[in-house]
Design brief:
With 235 residues, the chain is an all-alpha fold. Helix content is 73%, strand content 0%. Helix 6 runs parallel beside helix 9.
Length: 235
């Protein structure tokens, strides 16, 4: 019986590039459980860059107008972000300028945290540490994905995402409990992101060292001698 040779279909390079670009930008957004839960029901309602830019401009306008004083009004910047940016979570982020979405979103998140903290007289060092922790998580995500290493999906859920973090802080600010809530949130995120990041990088280093050791064991004495000779000539 003659069998036909099986052919392996190679992925389209352009399609693969688009898939990786989408995955990276969605990872940089740092959407949490609320955004992921609503993604299916909201669909692809709004383009990400214009919606996020309008939200950021609206928050700046509220700050310049001096409207963010105390009480329920402090929920307004959070509500603006949720209403305008959540409907963009389902987009593929393949537009020419869609790479601007993560930095615009992070700027809006950080600005909202600062404005809420100033309105509630939260210690500035606490605001700085909270922003630093979130910024470190963003940097770690960017660096990992550029190395082809993706953070686990559960980390985005456990990290609450930008939307749940801001919702928690907004409600706490409106109720006059921002400082203790921000302290607990900062401590939680610090432990979560630091432990997960260190554990992942240590695991990666061990895997790389093991792979190198296995490769060295597979080398014949002649290949090892040629490698040493080549390195010596290059030096």
């Amino acid at each position: 019986m003659i069998t036909q040779p099986q052919t392996t279909t190679l992925p389209d390079p352009d399609e693969e590039r688009r898939r990786v670009q989408t995955a990276r930008l969605l990872a940089y957004r740092d959407d949490g459980p609320l955004a992921n839960a609503l993604k299916g029901s909201l669909g692809r309602l709004l383009p990400p860059v214009p919606a996020t830019a309008v939200a950021l401009i609206a928050i700046v306008a509220l700050a310049v107008a001096g409207a963010l004083t105390d009480g329920p009004i402090l929920l307004v910047p959070v509500a603006v972000l949720l209403v305008l940016v959540l409907p963009t979570a389902g987009r593929d982020h393949l537009g020419r300028f869609d790479w601007l979405t993560p930095p615009l979103l992070r700027a809006a998140e950080f600005l909202t945290i600062i404005l809420l903290g100033l309105a509630e007289d939260t210690p500035k060092w606490l605001l700085f540490v909270l922003i630093y922790v979130i910024g470190y998580h963003t940097y770690d995500t960017v660096y990992r994905t550029r190395q082809g290493i993706w953070p686990p999906a559960w980390l985005y859920q456990a990290g609450l995402g930008w939307e749940v973090r801001l919702l928690v802080l907004g409600v706490a600010a409106a109720a006059g409990w921002l400082t203790p809530v921000a302290a607990v949130l900062t401590a939680y995120l610090l432990v979560l992101f630091a432990v997960e990041s260190i554990t992942s990088w240590v695991r990666l280093d061990k895997a790389s060292a093991q792979a190198q050791a296995d490769q060295d064991l597979e080398q014949s004495p002649e290949e090892a001698a040629e490698q040493v000779t080549g390195e010596a000539e290059q030096g």
